[in-house]
């Protein structure tokens, strides 16, 4: 990638979506065979009925490659036209190299700069903000943002508080530069982080704080650990606050929003937020029931399925909001302007 700023003002435009989910479906009944739970218990507390798990020999990059190929096809773009590939992920193939570099190589994006974003379930929003900044500064023309997760590989399947929640998927979007007088693009972002809550959602082992080479250590330390009560309190608060701050900064009323797509973590969190924001349920798309929490892949996967369901159409003003490990949060308002 070679990026040089020029005088022609551009706006970032979302033109294509794509997703890939594993074949293996794990239902709540399957979960009840692994831990002390039931379909009614899980669904009443989370809104989840089933989730997808990768195969033993699959990783996040395998899903990302297949999703990336679909996005390139929808955008009618040659892989060599991609300037930057950003992969938000909480379950990378390795600490390094970045999963994005592996994906770029396999999809043929050999001219692209490639890097991961580690912002938990907010990763896709952070990735959109980074892609928008690169395009609107003139440093890139085409940016592929591709959330990819194999969370089943880092989840303790004997821990009822976490194993019922998480699933695997990859999904993302292509952003391209367009003349600002022709498109609306992204109107703004509201991003934030509060590291004081970092230990409330964490994988303790495997980094420099607790290196794997210092093992053996309890296997659970290499899996997701979550303080569910604190994360729930955080999510219900920041989802409303982030959207409200952004809409106020844009001098927009919630009635101007055609569709809300939130990170798919817990149905009770989403219901609380839309009630506080005053957004009617018919303007909200959820697919949590079928996939569970797929972290950085959840928002673009929901956007794609909203389009397939007729709820996302060209020209729609869309509010996206995410929250997750870090603790992090972010929201954006954009007009959907596909190719």
CATH superfamily (homologous) name of the largest domain: Thiolase/Chalcone synthase
Order of helices and strands: EEHHEHEHEHEHEEEEHEHHHEE
How many beta-strand runs? 13
What's the CATH topology name of the largest domain?
Peroxisomal Thiolase, Chain A, domain 1
Structure keywords:
single chain; 339 residues; alpha/beta; Peroxisomal Thiolase, Chain A, domain 1; 5-stranded mixed β-sheet; 4-stranded mixed β-sheet; 31% helix
Walk me through the structure.
With 339 residues, the protein is an alpha/beta fold. Helix content is 31%, strand content 24%. A hairpin with a 3-residue loop joins strand 12 and strand 13. The protein starts with 9 loop residues before the first strand and ends with a strand.
Write the layout of secondary structure elements.
Layout: E1 10-20, E2 24-27, H1 28-32, H2 39-46, E3 50-53, H3 60-75, E4 84-88, H4 99-107, E5 113-117, H5 123-136, E6 142-150, H6 160-163, E7 168-179, E8 186-193, E9 201-202, E10 225-226, H7 228-249, E11 259-262, H8 267-277, H9 288-291, H10 298-308, E12 317-324, E13 328-335
Parallel strand pairs: 4-5, 4-6, 11-12
Antiparallel strand pairs: 1-7, 2-3, 6-7, 8-13, 9-10, 12-13
Helix pairs in contact: 3-4, 7-8
